[in-house]
Amino acid sequence: MAEPIPAPVPTPAPNNAPTPAPAAAPKAEDIAAALLTALETRQQRTERSVAKSFSEQYGLSETEISDILARAKAEKEAKIPEAAQAEITKQLERANGLLIAADVRAKGAALGLVDADTALLLLDKSKIKVDDKGVVTGTEDALKALQASKAYLFTAQPTGQKGIVGGKIDNPNPGGEPDGVTAAFLRRNPGMKL
Asked: What is the dihedral of CA 106, 107, 111, 116, to 10 degrees?
């Protein structure tokens, strides 16, 4: 038996027509805008559906449920995110620490404090407060308590001047020969009187 001859497959006629250019891909901004619009529409439908369900469940009108939802959304939007609140708290504590340190240095100098950095480490800071306006209170009491317990941090004679540590420096040669710096100055500037 002879094998059947396969039927010829028709070949398509050559198409000389130009192929259409592929459609331009939509821009990412257009896709994002369409996506956001679709999500907002679906969210609004879902909210209306849930509001209707809650109004039936709790015996309230849909308007009352919508008002409750609007207030809850406003409270949520007004609330600072936890990470941001943590950063705000951290920066506020840092600023308050700097204010306390400055106050300790200023008031400590008036009491004859020798080492403000050590005093800051040893002070009972639980009694030192900084108010909303940045006013520091309780520093003087804390410093006096520290002076009573750690007298070596204070000089015997405080200067009594705020912000100045130590006292007046006296001339080591009163009424005598000028010191080396003064003598050199006078040699370079003869005729100057001090």
From this structure: -60
- Which amino acid does the sequence have at 169? I
Please write the tens of the pLDDT for every residue from 41-57: 999 898 888 888 888 88
Strand 136-137 with 129-130, pairing: antiparallel
Phi-psi region of 134 (alpha: psi -120 to 50; beta: other; left: phi over 0): left
Residue with tokens 């520093």: 139
CA–CA distance, 48 with 50 (Å, rounded to integer): 6
Output the pLDDT for position 179.
73
pLDDT tier at 61 (50, 70, 90 boundaries)? confident
Gap between the Cα atoms of 149 and 155, Å rounded: 14
**b (16+ CB within 10 A) / e for 120-136:** beebebeebebeeeeeb
pTM of the full predicted structure? Answer: 0.47
